[in-house]
## 1
Amino acid sequence: MDCDIVRDLMPGYIDGVLSEAGSRVVREHLERCAECGQVYADMKGSVDNGSTPAEQAALDGFRKIHRRTRRFKMAAVMGELLAAAFMIAIFLKVFVFGNLSRAHIVWVTNSTYNEQTDSLTINGHIDAAGHISRIKWKENPSIGDRVDLFVYVAETLPFGSEEKSFSVTIPDMKGKNLYVIGSDYDHRKAYDWKDDHWELMRDLEKEIYQRVGSDWDTQKTILWQGSGIRTVDGVDGIWYSVSFLIGEDAYYQRIGDTYVTYGEMETEDFEIWISLEEPHQIRLYDNKTGKYQEVP
């Protein structure tokens, strides 16, 4: 910068009223120019020695006003930045990320289980305004055989597409149930692996009755199917607990997965495990000893 311009700025530099940029320019010039450095030293000395108390008080007051003005400007800039960030966050929340939908507006139209990969592909749509922004799923930490599906819905911009259909493939769904989880703490079952393999479940129960309970009264014997898949010696299977109804008039009715019992009931202290693959292996698990016994 030209020396004459720097010397014109020196009074403001000495009084501390220049902007940061202006002060930096003068300071860098003084570091390079010895002649201007001497002018600066003389000027600063005359200011320090020649000011009357009244002049010094006025100068100090001006410096305070300048510092306060700079603080106010910085606060205003920070306020504008925070307001802009808040508006951007609202925009992203409403139009990009969206909110968790309610369970009853999510419809699963079909599901396909892959026997080779144990994955589940589901297709569906939402029955609501807006568009599907994202879909997540995770295993329920409290219920081992359950996977929870979360569908998020966002508002649609005037020039945006309103996508309401979805297709998602979820891995490792063997023996598990899928639930759609809603924002209002409701949920709805969307898929049940055992219902999807009802013929296999029927055949497994027949095998148990033939090999373990040939003398059981089927009208008074309940096989309670356990949750999920139980692996024994590297083999996947289903397990059951067994209960017997007591009394001549005792009986039960089965409605889906629900048993309605009439009469007293006793539950045995063993469980029955049966492999999914043929030839079916059957083992009895003793709840007292924690050991398996193979059934021929």
## 2
Amino acid sequence: MLIILVERDRLNGETPLRYGSDMVRPIWKGAVTFGLVYIPVKLYTATEQRDVKFNYLHSRCHTRIRYRKFCPHCEEEVNEDEIVRGYEYEKGRYVVMDEDELENLTAGGGRNITLLDFVDLKEIDPVYYDRPYYLAPAEGGEKVYALLLEALSQSGKVGVARVAIRTKESLAVVRVTGPALLMSTMHYPDEVRPAAHVPELNYRADLHKNEVGMALSLVESLAAPFEPEKYRDDRREAVLELIRAKVTGETAVVTPPPQTEKVVDLMDALKSSIEQAKKERGVAKGAGRARAAGKPREESVVEDAAHP
């Protein structure tokens, strides 16, 4: 049996919980090229997983579990320098590839982000996006970096590029975000599964005009500017609170989610949703006006629900 615990550090008598990192280091150095223009850049990851990190421990002694790389044929543990890559082309039969062979495959465009086309951002379906990275100018590349940034800003275009990071070559898009260039790696078309392959999407539904109108009213009542800072990971916060309680020896109390009444009629559900949205948005706007007028903020369950 395994149990999962998190690491903790003791600092000034406290037990801070560690997850995520504020350290920013370049993971790759290369250049952006288009035409005869060469821009030396550094690549930084733009996002990070903020999930609570757990370790697997043995339940009896709380010793951290080790994972060994073991060869069942030789019956021995294998070191990193003894491991090679193999592609299984038939059951139990492999061709072996070494790192130099894989590196040489991208020799022509290695270390380069080659801009191929400039397109409108709205033409790219978000399903193609994979991972975002910040591009920063390397030494001596500040002016030409600023020139590309300004050209993309004024044209409203984004650059479609090909980039090789480590041993993987990816499609990418380079665009402007604030004062920086952002590169998002993308999936190739044959890596994106068509929606037509989902069998449940082959359906028919007869919609009444009134139902569509009510649904539009609900969408409009919930319409708001996108403010990412107002959304919270409630699950992560609940896990952290439970961990803090365990670390300090407190009894953790988990409040069960409220039971919602099941509504059978679609129109009744839409009407109730619109009324609830208007009520919640009204409370939120009232609280905002109160804060702007210097009045103390009143805590409200409804306000919290309107700002998840």
